[in-house]
Amino acid sequence: MRAKTAMKPDPRLHFQAPLLETPFHPRTSAANRLNAWVPWGGYSTVLEFEDLAMEHSAIRNAATVYDLCPMVKYRVRGREAAAYLNRLTVRNVAKLQVGSVHYTIWCDDAGKIVDDGTLFRLADDDYRICCQERHLPWLLDSAHGFDVTIEEVTEEIAALSLQGPCSYAVLKAAGFDVETLKPFRIATFPVDGGELMISRTGFTGDLGYELWTSPDRALALWDRLFEAGALYGIRPIGSAALDMARTEAGFIITNLDFIPAHQAVREDRVRSPFDMSLDWMIDWEKGHFNGRRALLAEREKGSEWAFVGLDIEGNVSAEHAIIYHDKKHEVGQITAACWSPTVKRNIALAHVKRPYHAEKSGNLWVEIYAMRELQYVKLMLKARICERPFFKPARRTATPPGLF
Amino acid sequence: MPSFDAIIIGGGTNGLACAARLQKSGRKVLVLESGSAPGGGALGADFAPGYRAPGLAHLVHMLDARVETDMDLARHGLSWAATDLPSTALSATGDHLVMEGAAGERLTGSVSAEERRAWAALRTELMAFADVLAPFKELTPPRLAKGVGNDVWQLGKLGLKTRMMGKDRFREFLRMLLINVHDVLNDELTDPRLKGLLAHDAVLGTWLGPRSPNSLIHLLNRFAGQVAGKRASLAVPAGGMGAVAAAMAASATASGVTIRTGAAVAALIVEGDRTVGVTLASGEDLRAATIISAISPKTTFLKLLGPRHLDTGFVNRIRHMKSRGGAAKLNLALKGRPDFRGADLRSRLVIAPDEHAVELAFNAVKYGEAPDRPVMEILVPSAFEGGHAPDGHHVLSAIVQFAPCGQAVGTDAIRERYRNQTLAVLEQHAPGLADLIVGEELMLPADIEARHGMVGGNWHHGELSVEQMLFLRPVPGIAQYQGPIAGLWLAGAGCHPGGGISGAAGWNAAERIVREVRS
Ligand SMILES: Cc1cc2nc3c(=O)[nH]c(=O)nc-3n(C[C@H](O)[C@H](O)[C@H](O)COP(=O)(O)OP(=O)(O)OC[C@H]3O[C@@H](n4cnc5c(N)ncnc54)[C@H](O)[C@@H]3O)c2cc1C
């Protein structure tokens, strides 16, 4: 049965509801036992449903559902869509096949990152950009001189992320055969007179899928997954659990791990792909793209920052801590951290001034102010630069996936 | 086809000046001009059988001194039918006011002694401030970033000179750079004819009314110009404006420059993120290590190079560069001598009864309409020498403001109305003129764009307003003539110091290219 379309509110009355509800709200609100909500992109979303440890544990041991609706989505269509996206983003869009997805970033003229996101190639001349921040003016300005149309489709799509070792088994039980679907590939299924798109993508670094449908089919999709997943321990998760999982996976979040170039107020806060250690994505041979000349110059001259994974002694999470060299000189700051229940290490993601990310990384310390019963306890803990991701299970990429 | 070190797109005065300077540095230079003759805005036009008029520009007052002497224009055929031309503020009753000498050193006509004193004082001040600005015209604009190779020595000298004015004068200087001409005129003067003429001159070639902010700086810019060794002076070339184009082309050719006419550049060739050549409209490819565009920046980037070779932010800046043209060109073939109620035809004739008339003419075009009573600058080249029209006949060349530009404009009704209103104003000042007309040509800004490629029909290839001057010209980031892509340079009026029959931008660009490659 198809759920009734939620009535679109009168836009003039927006002030009465500063945060919108996603199409899954009837289900997420029913499950939100802690009533813990956070705003995300203009929507109310769940921070924690019931228990953070259980939610994180389900990501690594069972199956989880996360409401992705607030993710900003743009549709790019037209004869020159590929040429347009090649000029907009740093990766080579010509290499992205129909039915595939890639992670990418885009920069301003100065080669500073505007945002990161995933790019879906839905058909020859039809793409979808999914990202954290809103960019319609920039995308439209970038379209000058290209035969493309660009529209924001955030509200036209309802999306769920199904992640965890049992996610394949849940989909199978729900009647969706994704056995041969490889990572970063897309499949579509007819549902209730419409279509469900499933991509093997996610933000947890685990086996997982993202499911895309229309808002009027949102609740039916939720129910179908929870029915099929009951025996697999499926549960909804909030962004707190996801944040731990993504830190373990070494993934970054715009405005948490870097300030987007179009929002930074302070001149020195912007970051280049080199600064964020994302330069591996740049295709220097594909022709011009936004920021290319500035980035070439930066490649010649060298960059100021590097983005690294840290392993810190002890078990006190080091969120937003300052990093010192030799306990004396500030050389960086941590943007994401947790004690990882999965790898049992105290991990962090951090900006580190070069060359303290490599040649001079021997003597790094993290200063943590731990609040202990109304008093800060100051800790100076040894930190070691280490490989990202911290957690990379083989099940993430195995095809066919395991039926756990 | 022999190979060239540099290709210059556009054979206007700036393209030719740039070519001559570069060729002298030992480079082999090719100029590609889409028209049938080089010269751009300095060309003459045979607009009616037996009559020849200036195509666009009719007076020389901005000629770059380096261009004039180093290109040895005199040896290549340039001489003057008149220098130090007086200006007549025409009155509909015959009570004309004449300004003689540099920037109206002397006033003749019925003017009170008090007004003469007031004008002398204001003129002295304007000339002093123009003196401060003049040397900047011959310099590459400084960049705001640090360690970017500014000509620190030259800038330091000019900066020091500016500061030597003393605190009060410096403050006054800054005030004058930003103020509107209407307010200054009304603070200091009373004679409507004088105020009308000065207001007219300040907004000639701009998209500003006298009350628009920053309109005074154009008057200073005008007074900072020179011709034939004289500051703030006007000159009429012997043989018509086309003689300037011919002399510059002859000089460039004599120094070894190759000029190809009928060669419209349709696109730039980009390889390995460098411009390496051009494709002509005919499909022919021509290659050179250095490509210099002496046409409008908007056309250069949005059409010839294309946004896909540029960054989005840069394309935004170029798209937003303002380039509205309000000056129309009227050429009349007359079977007899026009009589502007006794005014000396061997002067520049200006119809701008007072500063409000200029403002009102601008008001209309703000809303896409043609003004009831346009203002204008008139030259009668045939009054200075023969050869422009059959014996006893005359040609009248007028720059008429403000003509509507943009969307609403193409309509025949607006054109018809603009023509009729212009002729009505002329008839009022020169009764019987209408009966003398045997041929005519009216070019609105849209026609000027179509024929000459000046975007929007704008005099300067992009408005020369304070926010588009110096290091903001044509847009921030490329103010030092160097394009955003390797191998590409700019040299036209869209660059510092702007347009006019001058060659300064082209010469500056060449100096910059020579210096860049040496270092
Ligand atoms: C109505 C009007 C009246 C004016 N009157 C005066 C005046 O009295 N005194 C004065 O000093 N200034 C006057 N000006 C301003 C002056 O004409 C310009 O500022 C000056 O011509 C600019 O010189 P330039 O060499 O930069 O460009 P232009 O003179 O515009 O020359 C550019 C050349 O490039 C060519 N070209 C364009 N596109 C292409 C292409 N794709 N490929 C190859 N060639 C191309 C054009 O045909 C042209 O020859 C007037 C302007 C206007 C609009």
Structure overview:
The complex is a heterodimer of chains A (404) and B (519). Chain A is of the alpha+beta class. Chain A contains eight helices and 19 strands. The radius of gyration of chain B is 22 Å and the shape is globular. With 519 residues, chain B is of the alpha+beta class. In chain B, helix 6 packs antiparallel against helix 7 and helix 7 packs across helix 8. Chain B has an eight-stranded mixed beta sheet, sandwiched between helices. In chain B, strands 12-2-1-16-22 form a five-stranded parallel beta sheet, covered by helices on one side. Chain B has a three-stranded antiparallel beta sheet with strand order 13-14-15. Classes of the chains: A alpha+beta (404), B alpha+beta (519). Chains A and B meet through helix 3 and helix 4 of A and helix 11 of B. Flavin-adenine dinucleotide binds next to helix 1, strand 17 and helix 15 of chain B.
Entry summary:
Chain A is an alpha+beta fold and 404 residues long.
Which secondary-structure class do the elements of chain B indicate? alpha+beta
| CATH homology group of the largest domain in chain A | Probable tRNA modification gtpase trme, domain 1
Bound molecules: flavin-adenine dinucleotide
The helicity of chain A comes to 10-25%
Q: What is the fold named in CATH at topology level of the largest domain in chain A?
A: Gyrase A, domain 2
Overall morphology of chain A: globular
Number of strand elements of chain A: 19
The backbone outline of chain B, from C-alpha atoms, is: globular
- Tally of separate domains of chain A: 3
Question: What's the order of the H and E elements of chain A?
Answer: HEEHEEHEEEHEEHEEEHEHHEEEEEE
Largest sheet of chain B: 8 strands, mixed
Q: What is the mean predicted local confidence, pLDDT of chain B?
A: 95
Helix and strand content put the structural class of chain A at alpha+beta
User: Strands of the biggest beta sheet of chain B: in what spatial order?
Assistant: 8-7-6-18-19-20-17-21
Rg over C-alpha atoms of chain A, rounded to the nearest angstrom: 22 Å
**Rg of chain B, alpha carbons:** 22 Å
Separation, N- and C-terminal Cα atoms of chain B? 30 Å
